[in-house]
Write a structure and sequence with these properties.
The chain is α+β, with helices and mostly antiparallel strands. The protein has one domain: Ribosomal protein L17 (50s Ribosomal Protein L17, Chain: A, Alpha-Beta Complex). The protein is about 55% helix and about 15% strand. It has five helices and three strands. The protein has a three-stranded antiparallel sheet with strand order 1-3-2. Helix 1 packs across helix 2.
């Protein structure tokens, strides 16, 4: 029986899976929208939502908890606490959105875009920089 088993193995070792999810999370925090395969996007969603929930309250403990997952990258840590955490403070979850976007050319793998729901769009960023 497969009770209580969650997540996919992706034909990788546990350390490789951990690194994969960590790198996808870093990319999502940095760019706020990434394109990946559908199974990876679906497994990334609960992983990144737990990180964003931690980032909603800025404290030394929470910063250290995120550093243990993301690494000691000051720019990403500051961004997730100041930008992303402050934007979603009133939300009770559901910080990400997975949108299917066809199939990859080479192997027909289903592709998806995962993005932050409250992400800043390019037009909004330009308006802020013009002011």
């Amino acid at each position: 029986m497969k009770h209580g088993i969650k997540g996919r193995k992706f034909n990788r070792t546990s350390s490789h899976r951990k690194a994969l999810l960590s790198n996808l999370a870093k990319a999502l925090i940095k760019h706020e929208l990434i394109k990946t395969t559908l199974p990876k996007a679906k497994d990334l969603r609960p992983y990144i939502e737990k990180l964003i929930t931690i980032a909603k309250t800025d404290s030394l403990t929470n910063r250290r908890r995120l550093m243990s997952v993301i690494g000691n990258n000051k720019d990403l840590i500051d961004k997730i606490f100041s930008d992303i955490g402050s934007r979603v403070r009133s939300r009770n979850g559901g910080y990400t959105r997975v949108i299917r976007c066809g199939f990859r050319t080479g192997d027909k793998a289903p592709m998806a875009v995962i993005e932050l729901v409250d992400r800043l769009h390019l037009a909004e960023v330009k308006e802020k920089s013009d002011k």
